[in-house]
Amino acid sequence: MSLRRSAYLALLVLGLLSALSAFYVAQLRFNYNFNDFYPAGDPDLDYYQGYTKRFGNDNDYLLLGLEAPKGRTVFDADFLGRVDSLTRLARGQRHVVAITSPTTLANPVVEGFGVFNLPYLHPAAYRADPAQRARDSTLIYRTPGLVGNVFSPDARAVALVIQTTADLKKPPGDSLLAVLRGGLKRYGFPESSYHLAGRAVAQSVFVDRLQRELIVFMSLSVLLVTGLLWFTFRTWWGVALPLVVVLGAILWGLGVMGACGVRIDLMTALLPVMMFVVGTSDTVHIITRYVAELGYGASKKDALRVTIKESGFGSALSAVTTSLGFFTLMTSSIRPIYNFGLFTGIAVLLAFVLSFTLLPALLTLLKKPQLRVARTQGHSWDGVLSRLFRQVLARRRLIFTVSGLVVAGSIGLATRVHINSALLDDLSKNDPVRLDFAFFEKQFAGVRPFELELKPAPGRTVYDLAVLRETARIEDYLRGPYGLRFAASPVTLVKSVRKALHGGGLEAYRLPADSAELRGLQSKLRLFRKKPEFRALALPDGRAGRLTGRMADVGSIRADALNAGLRQFLRTRIDSTVLRTRLTGSSNLIDKNNENLTLNMITGMSIDILMVTLIVLALFKSFKMTIIVLIPNLVPILIVAGVMGLAGVNMKVSTSIIFTIAFGIAVDDTIHFISKLRLTLAHETSVFRAVRHTYLLAGKAVIVTSLILVGGFSTLLFSSFDGTFYVGFLIGLTLVFGVVAELTLLPLLILYFYKRKPVIEQVLN
């Protein structure tokens, strides 16, 4: 079979596979599921899932904060009328289970065999009887559980707590938000006067931004890579062919995702951008070598044969190391990171396959490029790279000294990097969504949920007096040293029933004095057990209960310290023969991710380093060469860790992937360099000549691919997500330092330690 027929057959097969991939890409959907960021396989996750079956999710709610008009308080009759209209609108929506609103709050009173609910607010009477407003406000601000939950301390804002159906997805969530925003506009609430927070809000914003930013990143990447390719090769095919190969790799990678039923989330949205910059590397090395051979006067067939022979091995090794950098992310227990590592790693390998099937096929079918003059003395970059090489040799002591000082300083600064995360870490501090969440932390209880399961000892229920007293002791601690701003538990239920039995007076809002009084309340408790708030806080048989609350999003470091203090309090101050407890909840699970971040990063880096070590040992049979190769790739990692410490960037879910990805990508050029060096050593008598020849041969590709990589990752700087921004900035920075180390430290280390020192002295003299 002729070479051209083989090329046509390859294009046919690749075209069919691309069509199949396109079919599965069409099945892809965007998704942001808060639950996906829980640590998969963790026993606490299994426990929480059982807990939600008993009591429901702790994040199935929507907060709507409403500020009173300027110069007025929330007890303004007109304001409360509009709040009530909005409450009625929200209550009638399909996915709203229950709603707590200032206009629906009532003080229950038990008389005879019935329960009467007396409203806290009487706005219709305020104009005729101004004293009623004062009486209502006084009662509300004396009643526990209302201020900070529904009313702000300064009486300038109220909050509607809207309980939604479990695991509300984006389409119905968006519909609910649209109805609420329409109602807000209809009832005269300007945008500056209301604030929305909760799972549905975060889900809607994240998915919409993912879609928009994916288009922006891809567009910027195409423009940037196209410009750099044109600057490098100055031919249409030198631009078009790499783009075709990379877009094919992206199509195949996303097709595999679609075939596996995986959706595009905050992490996998980076796959196309990653592939666009990473996948270009092999094509640049191939075309650079191909053009160089043509420049030396070789025929198209011979140039292609030499290119594939000399670039294939190095490209295969670099594809393995780069993909491994992504595959090591599969050690993470966080599903979005796991999926990102898996499918990006697969896409890198697919890019390698296309680089050595599709690209050669296209080069075969294209006519031989007409170069101006066949060069016999080397290509146009030789002069620049030769001068750079001599400057590196001449300033070797300065390079070693500066490198040592920078590394030492970076290690010191890296110790300042902390593992810390918050619920909305990926949004900048000035983001409107984050500002809305901050509003609820300032004016109300906050948005961070707290969950503690109450498990009475065998033979007891949550309504036993001893259990209630222990629960109350826990509540006091949580409201005090722990910082919980709102709490509810079976204690709340019993106190409320006792108050209802005593005419609704606030002085009766306390636990019964003894077991005899408690027994008198037992029959009345049954009157309230059908209420949603009762079902949410205790099982029907009373064998388990729930202490729930909200607080400020203090961050995982502070939360870990608070939880450690809480556990100490529970161990030493709570009688475990009466009541046992277990901390759970979505916030607790998110915090647990931090425990695994360092271990996952170390595991990933260790696997990467082990693989590079095995590759170098296989190529050179030398442990010394292994150290030589690792140093210029680990130095940039240390420097970037120092930059993180200097800039105060915390280690969190989104930034924990930086080091393994950066190392896997940065080592790519090193693998190309040493694989070419190995081939050159086979016909060069001097190590110096071999290093110099490799430097001139690989230098252009190293610089061009690094520019493309840095430029591609720099597009992520336009992201509105802090995590994505730092991925682009820090990986780009790593690659900048990496190419500097590649062109300075690597050749010096090879010449110093792979061969005797006098080799350099002879050349310089």
UniProtKB/TrEMBL annotation:
It is found in: Cell membrane. InterPro entries: MMPL_dom, Mycobact_MmpL, SSD. Coiled coil: none annotated. It holds the Pfam family MMPL. The chain crosses the membrane at residues 214-233, 240-264, 270-292, 313-334, 340-366, 398-419, 597-620, 627-647, 653-674, 695-719, 725-754. Residues 243-365 form the SSD domain. It is a multi-pass membrane protein. Keywords: Cell membrane, Membrane, Transmembrane, Transmembrane helix. PROSITE patterns: SSD. One of its GO terms (cellular component) is plasma membrane. It comes from the Bacteria. This is SSD domain-containing protein.
